[in-house]
Amino acid sequence: MDKKFAKRISGAALAAAAALALAACGSSGGSSGGSSGTTTLKLVVADYGTGPSNTSAKYWANIVTAFEKVHPDIKVNVTTIAWTNFDQEVQTMIQNKQYPDITEGDYFSNYASDGLLYPASDVLSNPGNLLQTFKASDSVDGVQYGMPFTTSSRTLFYNKKLFAQAGITSAPQTWADIQTDAAKITKLGDIGFGLPLGSEEAQAESLLWMLGDGGGYQTDGKYTINSSANVAAFTFLKGLVSAGDTEPNPGTVDRTPLWQEFAEGKIGMINGSPALIPIIQSAGVLQSSDWTSVPIAGQNGPLTDTLGVCDNVSAFKPNGHEAQIKEFLDFAYQDQYQIAFDKEYDLLPATASATKALASDSVFAPFLTALPNSVQYPSDTAWANVKAKIQQTIGLAVTGSPSTELTQLQQIATTSAS
């Protein structure tokens, strides 16, 4: 059976959209008691769907229907928001004191620091079943507030068909391999390496290259964006771009359209997640024997640590529904719903038990193997602003001065963290 894929839908982000979305879904500024002694929870979720057939609203509606049969005294109203607008619209709700009870998406640390969230231990019966890989990044001052609901990791995809045509006989393991192989593929008239540094997920692509030389966004909890390792990574990428071995102007190119080009057989190599697999299948150009996925190449060899990301559940205090939230989250985190979500949107589970259940799945296994050793984004309150600036400007580091651009980002990070 063909799998669907998780495309984070883009759209215009207007501040008023949050209020309109709430009105359209019949939600009010805060959860309230029902007329028959029921409690109504407001659940606000990101939409991972590709259209009406697999919108996240349908996924959550199935859970809500089953939950309300077991808990007739608790009603759940669901609001879905396009992924790319999620953070902004939830922030608007909070600013307007239209507090949700539960969100599933991203951006929890500021709310936790403001005292708006319940700790995970208050609203989950078994928080220890959450993947411990993400515990530190989901915590503020040593207390876990973010509860991963879905996760993902990254590997390097390459087109075996193009490799064979270019006379390349093995998978790239080092940056030197990437450079040599990309040049050979470019000579065939295709893109050697797909480098999406546009706003969709520039922060992810950038971190994968930083890790390749032992760098990253932080060292010992302090931002080190302009470290020598990071500058070396972007200096290498600048060389790849200037040689014409990537698509033109990577800073203007988003991940999803570039993944589509890989699926159409036009790109030799690209970093990807499980969500790339169904795009390949849907395109119908590459057969399963025409591509493969391997550990990401680093400066001196394949990475043992790759990027791992999670989208978090947050449970809000202002409406006072701790007990009802706990009932719902215990229900929603059951393995059957975790696995259904992952297979619908080609993402990875967030619990140890669901991970074990999917360990033998041929699609998920390579990514699950990479997940325990993954590196996460910073979790401090400055990250939201830093991430936005990275998405807007880091592409300039491969066309201008890597040191200058990374230093400017470092200054923004230092200011935001102070």
Structural class: alpha/beta
State the separation between the terminal residues, measured CA to CA.
51 Å
What pattern of helices and strands is seen along the backbone? HEHEHEHHEEEEHHEHEEHHEHEEHHHHHH
Q: Number of helix segments?
A: 17
Description of the structure:
It is a single chain. The chain is α/β, with parallel strands linked by helices and 418 residues long. The protein folds into 2 domains: 201 residues, 3-Layer(aba) Sandwich (D-Maltodextrin-Binding Protein, domain 2); 188 residues, 3-Layer(aba) Sandwich (D-Maltodextrin-Binding Protein, domain 2). It has 17 helices and 13 strands. Strands 2-1-3-13-6 form a 5-stranded mixed β-sheet, with helices on both faces. A 4-stranded mixed β-sheet has the order 8-11-7-12. The chain has a two-stranded antiparallel ribbon with strand order 4-5. Helix 2 links the parallel strand 1 and strand 2. Helix 10 crosses helix 11. The termini are far apart.
